[in-house]
Structure formats: C-alpha cells, structure tokens
Amino acid sequence: MKTGEITTMNVPFVSRTEINLEAIGVSELYNNAIEKMKESMASFQKRGSNWRFVAVQRLDINTVEYKPLKGSSYIPLPKYLADKKAIINLKNEDNQCFKWCVARALNHVEEHSERVTKELRKQAQELNWNDITFPVTLNEIDKFERNNTDLSVNVFGYEGFVKHFVKHYVYPLRISKHERKDVVDLLLISNDTTNHYCLIKNLSRLFSTQASNNEKSHLYCRRCLNSFRSKEALDKHKRYCNQHAVVRP
Prior knowledge:
Strand order of the largest sheet: 1-5-4-2-3
Shape: elongated
Largest sheet: 5 strands, mixed
Number of helices: 7
Mean pLDDT: 85
Number of strands: 7
Order of helices and strands: HHEHHHEEEEHEEH
Radius of gyration: 24 Å
C-alpha cells in the first residue's frame, strides 16, 4: 500500500455441486451457487492483504445427466446376506422388482415367498401405480408414497469389501418421512451391470452383527441403525434423530 504497487490475480471461486431431483427452479439453483461463491470470495479477501474484487473474468456453468440408483432385474444375494435368512429375494424376470417386493411385504406366504406368482401379480394391482415408471428410482418412491397413503417405504444399501479383513455394511439409502400403517423395508443390491430390490423380512436379524452395542436387541432406528432394548427408548431417541438426515454408521 505504501508503494502504490498493484497486484492482480485471477482467482477461481467454485460453487457446490447440486443434484436436481425435484424440478427445482433454475433460478434457485443459480442463487445458491452465487451465495456459495460470495462466501468463498469473502474468505479469500480476509486471508490476503487489502485484496479488492474488480470484475468477473468468466462464469462457467457445467451440467451432467444424473442417473440415480434404481432396481431392475434379478441378481442373487451375496452369501453373507443369504446366510442371514432375513431377506426375500424375488426372482423376477422383468424390471419390476420394486413392485413385487412391496406386494410380497403386504401379502406374506410361508413357502416359496421368492416366486412372482399369478396371485402376487393380482395382489400388486391393488396398489396405485399411477405415473410410476420401471425400473423404479429412489426419488420416484416419494411419488409412490403419495399414491399409497397407508405405506412407508425405506431402502437400505449393502457394501462388502476386504481391507485387512472382510467387512459387511448395510446402511440407509432412503428413509421415509412418514410413519404409516404399513412399513416396507427394502434392500438395494448391485453387481457390475444392474441393481435389484429385495424385501427385508427381519431387520433385527439383518443388523445383528453390526449393532451399535453388544446388547441383545430387536429394535433399531432405521435412520442411524442404533439398537435399543425397548420401544420407549427408541421413541425417545427418534424425537431427536428425526431432526437430522440419515447417516451411514
């Protein structure tokens, strides 16, 4: 400042990447991006010595098609999950595994529950499938819940990997905002080419080896997978947990 020397610099300020699933207005996305860049600019000016903003040299907006997870044709369960005996893996030959899983959840049978029978197809038609496209993506489940106001649908993911030792994780992908009469819990598994919905018939058995404590428990918070010994304790926890986004353990 004493010498009057002026230093100029072209500095990039980048906004956050946004996923647009619900047809949010372009102006809202643009304004959010601008606010983030203004924050970055203010932070930069505080770090330097008497920096002043002069002009925008260039503004780039980059877009790419987002392809959300969706369940399609049948794939076998990984051995770890199959051994749990907690999942019904519907053997569909189409892209409607979501439909058959929900129908089976509402119409339990003791034998051959994995079969997509004529009876199951008939039972599935009792639900409202208006404007639902197959295979069903995670964000389309909101529409399905609006069509069927007695149903809540939760979706969990699975990951198995080896790093020094084998680890298996089941984690929440999509937890319903509603607690309704009928609750359907699904597991979305995948291989190199496709994804597939399965029906979880026993949450406690599925989560038992990754419980948050060593207590023998049959009650789990679907949002964070913590385990509880009583419904009262779970209800008390949910009043707090429901205020936050779902988390991966």
